[in-house]
Amino acid sequence: MGHIVEIFRRHGAPYLHNHQGRILPSHRRTIHDICRCRTPAMGGHLYQCSHCDHYHYSYHGCGNRHCPQCQLQATRRWVDQRMEEVMPVSYFHLVFTLPSEFRALVRANQKIAYAILLKTAAASLMKLVADERYLGAQLIGILAVLHTWSRAMLYHPHVHLLVPAVGLSCDGDTVFFPRRQYLVPVKALSKIFQAKFITKIKAALPEQVIPAVTGKNAWVVFCKHLDLGPQKAIAYLGRYLNRVAVSDARVQRLPDGDVGVSYRDQVRTKSARLSPQEFLRRYLQHVLPKGLNKVRRYGLFAPCRRVLLTALRHHLMLSERTKPSMLAAKIGVVERPRWQRCPQCDNGVLRLVRPLAANCRNRSPPNKYSSSG
Length: 373
Description:
The chain is α+β, with helices and mostly antiparallel strands. It has 2 domains: about 5-65 and about 335-370, no CATH class; about 85-245 and about 290-330. The protein has 10 helices and 14 strands. The strands form 3 sheets. Strands 3, 4, 5, 6, 7, 8 and 12 form a 7-stranded antiparallel β-sheet that branches. The N and C termini lie close together (about 10 Å). Residues about 325-340 and about 360-373 have low confidence and may be disordered.
């Protein structure tokens, strides 16, 4: 059991009691799911080793997208699916960040504002890329992922974009992007992003007061060329995909009961000391509204352009401009073993004995059994 799950199980009930009547249903559901995740309350399966006859309990995960225990498998599945769409070219990574003045407005209108943030980030990039003065590509592929936290778990909404270095012109010709650190000028891109976001948010929330933003660099857009190869680029974005606000590796329980959260700023590694209640508050403020899709595909990656994407990928595989190493890379779903070795002896194979019903009366396994997720 990780540190985050332990904190939820020890302090989740007091948190609900302290904030009863004021806590959102999505936050209440997240606490409930994380506390039950990979426990007998979720049900599971009983396995037995073929070599040492050791019994092994495997309990189901809760499936909540904000659960730190369930996101690793979700990330693996997503990466495997995206490998079917990967382009044999290099990729660019962009980050669109909202000014701090907008955080209160966005947090109060999350479902509307997050959707606008994702759409305007993608639309701003597509507009500038289509300009003949820059690249002249009318159609590009964009994978967009929404994040709402900073390294210290503070509220900080922003969008990550992964873009292959190829597109299509208005005539249907293939346009290869230059191998440089930036895709398009970020200052021009930030101005377009600012104008589009403010226009959309005013139209969607006409009764809200739009904050005034001061400072030349308030609307920050970051761009980085990823010379990693197509598969590693997808895996790179996968690290951002289903990540929760903080990982177990950065959380430490302190002797006096407080929680230490390590994070790195621009220069060095720091540590924030939080009470368990403050840790839960910071964690839960990043729970997304129900039904909001935080991962979206635009342009060539849109589901309606699957046939066009397949044709372009096939063309790139035969193109002389692609790297031989990229052509040689196996593109497809990573095969995983269908069996699991015994954790006790590491020689036998675990065989299914019987399923375990959820909410069973026997909440913990006998001493001779082991339990894991």
